Amino acid sequence: MSYQLPPDFLWGVATSAYQIEGAAEEGGRKPSVWDVFSSTPKRTINGDTGTVANDHYHRYESDVKWMVELGVKHYRFSIAWSRIIPDGRGKVNETGVDFYRRLCDCLLENGITPHATLFHWDSPQALEKRYGSWRSREMAKDFADYCTAIVGRLGDRVTNWMTLNEIACFTHLGYDVAGVPQMAPGSRVWRKKDVWQTSHHALLAHGLGCQAIRAASPRPCSVALVDNPGVTVPLTESPADIIAAQTAFRTNWVNGGIIFPALTGQYDEVFLQSLGREAPVIRSGDMETIHQPLDAFGLNIYTGSHVRASQKVPGYEYVAYPKSYPRMHMPWLWLVPESIYWAIRHVAEVLNRPELPLLITENGCAAQDEVTQQGEILDSDRILYLRQYLQSAHRAVAEGYPLQGYFLWSLMDNFEWAWGYDRRFGILYNDFSTQQRTPKASFYWYAECIRQNRVA
Fold it and tell me: What is the pTM of this model?
């Protein structure tokens, strides 16, 4: 099989602001919740922070040159709310806006289309102090105002907007009832219901953000949401296992309470019943606000869970990974290439949205990269991972599902949240002591995919 992709398939790479920009105290930027979280003892490996990260704020021009060498025509990045409105609400910091103007101009001059994510976890610390960030409905309104401010200023350059990245991560991993949450703001709450309220507020922010983007954009634009659903993969592709995987998708992880309301306008009924008293408070009109028309939907897919049919209620069971099952350099990063295909198919069939254009907005892996004596990084394990997942994406396209493009995570090694600089996801190796970028073998492999417009 040639694994050829359509002529208009979008090949891209992705990054996020706090993970690469650095310049944490420059240009009028004020702290985000991640600045505070990462500088708190024992919250990140080695006490690493994103204060400098990849210094992309100062090195964006040379980073764009790497994209040109790669041959990529689409770049997904995020905008730091705390650069644009440092206090979270109120005055716009034009110096912060200017950085993104320069970045977008540089991309456009090099024939690269910008795809801007408006929120990738780094909310202003000022709003955490004011009302507890996502614990308050005020956050949704402040987010919409921020969308208005930046889209009105960058909309002459950017026409591809994404509202929020991975709601589950900055809500359900950022707030917890017991223990220390893994993500910023790292807040303890009293009840699981309070955690569900944070993700409901984030869904409201998405809905209001969609409205704000469309109202503020000076040109016709595309508006998307990015989610990382828990993907259920049938152990075999027997009819029974497929039905089991589709049934399990509704209640796997937080799917029924995030991707379902966003794409169907309702929390999944079975999922809502399972929450019982822990379900969030949903006010009149909330679901109409949340369920905005979308021009595209972004899927961040890294792994999945195997499911098979069962004679016992609820008709399916999860299959544990054997001890010898392969995984990459993260505890959760099991090698499940079929997860891309099944995520796409579940959107079409389980969520009944077969017409919705889809993008793989993130896919990649951490690997134990080693630099040879010759200065090379021969990450054939990453190539193995990427090739398998892209073949799965090709299968979805070949079967007629509306997959429009693929953004590899990530352009370069960066600040990997609570893992600090201990995990590397990039196809450019970054020496954080010198900020020298070195292409890995996977960089050249991905360049060949782009050049041939196929899975190499």
Answer: 0.98
Q: Is residue 29 one of the residues assigned to a domain?
A: yes
Annotated catalytic sites, by residue?
A: 166, 362
Max distance between CA atoms of the chain, in angstroms, equals 64
Q: Kindly report the CATH number assigned to the domain that includes residue 383.
A: 3.20.20.80
CA quadruple 108, 455, 362, 111: dihedral, nearest 10: 0
Q: Is residue 140 part of a domain?
A: yes
State the total domains in the chain.
Answer: 1
Number of residues in the chain = 456
Show the domain range for 417.
10-452
Question: Cis omega (within 30 of 0) on the bond before 185?
Answer: yes
Dump pLDDT digits (tens) for 261-299.
Answer: 999 999 999 999 999 999 999 999 999 999 999 999 999
- In what order do the strands lie in the sheet containing 316-319? 232-234, 305-309, 316-319
For residue range 417-437, what is the model confidence (pLDDT) as tens digits? 999 999 999 999 999 999 999
Collect the ranges in the chain with pLDDT lower than 70.
none
Cβ–Cβ < 8 Å for 155, 217: yes
Q: What are phi and psi of 4, to 5 degrees?
A: -70, 145
